[in-house]
């Protein structure tokens, strides 16, 4: 095939794919399902002392640059327990770093340090000569997430480093006596009604209530949900994650990041608008302020 024809064919395929991606209908359902981008990942990056290992997921065929998300696992968990988040968020257009803490029992403050180190790793990946994501990551569009003690670490990091971040999403966070009035970025707290490890009355709910009324914030409590509502199903019977609500928590997290990290106002109605009855029926509590 002549070079010019091969070039035109490749250009046609690229343009066709771009049209297909841009034509995706934005809905709660679509955000709860895998997104339009192909997901790739790697684990080779310059080591840092704050965490022991990590995997970086990214949207391999996204033409535009993208923001980043760092995610910490919970107590005695590994990045494997967060892996579905890496794939899900990357498929919707974000670079996502899921990390392993130095010790499985690292406390929330150490996880906060790990999250901020992970943010710096993502930023540096955009500059690293020969790096997979060189020139692709938007350094000023960073966010953090975490489960359990990782959720506590997320709140601690957001409380101290808001100027470096765009959004925070702690899920079933564990942090006794936590007050986070200094958080200045939009924060989505995801909780489980029947969480026996970090009961909502002692953790997620007072964390949410301590947040300033001057920031966008949301409390999403899953009816009957346990401590592992947002975890990967690894086959560990001890965890029994409520994977049946991954579409709900995953969709809201994507919408939150699209609105507050990407700054895309097309997602505001999906975040703060009326929730479909079938989704509302799966919540024991839902409150927010814009």
From TrEMBL:
Q: Where is the PET hydrolase/cutinase-like domain positioned along the sequence?
A: 35-273
Could you tell me the keywords of this UniProt record? Hydrolase, Signal
List the Gene Ontology MF annotations in alphabetical order. Answer: carboxylic ester hydrolase activity
Q: Does the keyword Signal apply?
A: yes
Which SUPFAM superfamilies does the entry mention?
A: alpha/beta-Hydrolases
Q: Does the keyword DNA repair apply?
A: no
Q: Which residues form the signal peptide?
A: 1-23
The protein in question is named: Alpha/beta hydrolase
